[in-house]
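A.,

Following up on our hallway conversation. Structure tokens first:
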């Protein structure tokens, strides 16, 4: 199985996939967490981008089935990454926030909306409270742990603190046109 795993990991389309080998007799906590009772066992986890959900498992050294499940897991990750990229690029200026422009559901989101409105820019919003996977996945995708998050032409600008700094320095308007 080690050769098959190495071959799959060397394929460019699988570059974001990881396989971690665990010694079942030494790592009992992990075995309990993932309900591993027989070896060899393989647990397929969606990825940190999607919240570390178990999406399948396999007991035994069944090479064709392992390859199939591995590739399905990679495909699922690629689809999710594509979903995030489509949302980020839905509009030239995109604000991911709690609530929407008409009904912000936290003070930070309300302040971000006020800044955008003050600068009279056209923007779209996405309510992260409506989609748990997007809410958690976007934090990991952009390596930004909090909301709101502002994207301009597909690039993360930052959160409310960054928006305030840019507004105070007079650079916010330039950010929208660059």
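Then the amino acids I'd put at each of the 178 positions:
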């Amino acid at each position: 199985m080690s050769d098959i795993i190495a071959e799959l990991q060397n394929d460019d389309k699988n570059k974001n996939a990881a396989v971690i080998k665990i010694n079942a007799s030494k790592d009992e906590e992990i075995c309990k967490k993932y309900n591993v009772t027989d070896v060899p066992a393989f647990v397929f986890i969606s990825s940190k981008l999607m919240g570390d959900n178990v999406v399948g498992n396999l007991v035994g050294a069944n090479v064709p089935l392992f390859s199939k499940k591995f590739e399905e897991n990679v495909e699922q990750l690629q689809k999710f990454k594509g979903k995030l990229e489509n949302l980020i690029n839905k509009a030239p200026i995109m604000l991911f926030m709690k609530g929407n422009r008409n009904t912000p559901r936290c003070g930070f989101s309300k302040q971000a909306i006020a800044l955008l409105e003050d600068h009279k820019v056209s923007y779209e919003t996405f309510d992260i409270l409506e989609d748990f996977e997007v809410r958690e996945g976007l934090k990991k995708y952009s390596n930004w742990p909090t909301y709101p998050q502002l994207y301009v032409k597909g690039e993360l600008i930052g959160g409310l603190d960054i928006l305030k700094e840019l507004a105070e320095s007079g650079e916010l308007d330039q950010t929208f046109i660059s």
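Helices lie at 2-10, 28-33, 63-88, 107-118, 132-142, 160-169, 172-177. Curious whether your intuition agrees with the design.

B.
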